[in-house]
Structures are given as C-alpha cells and as structure tokens.
Please model this.
Amino acid sequence: MSKSHRGKGIRSLVNRGRGTCGRCKKENIKVLYEHEIDGQKATVCKFCNAAIKNGKAAAV
Ligand SMILES: [Zn+2]
Model:
C-alpha cells in the first residue's frame, strides 16, 4: 500500500510510469494517477492529482 507510486513499484508500468500528463500535457513526466477528465479516464501527474483533489479539475 505504501509508496505505490514510487521506486520499484512503478518500474513495471508502461515506460516506467512516465508519459504525457492528461491534464497539463507535460511530457516525460511520471503519470501515476488516474482521474476522469471530461468523462474520460486519463492518467495525470502528481501536481494535477493534487489540483484535482483540491477541486480545480476545470482549470489547467
Ligand atoms: Zn499534469
């Protein structure tokens, strides 16, 4: 449960957890969190994950 988004645990993910964030479109960033954006499942980086948690899903 702990550190599920860090270290060895993310090596098995596609591209070792790196990709393009579905919200801020940053490239080659670790996208470890899944969120629904405009009704679509998207993977987002930790910054966007925090922003969405804070209820700022609409703002980019
Ligand atoms: Zn992002």
About this structure: Residues 7-53 form one domain.
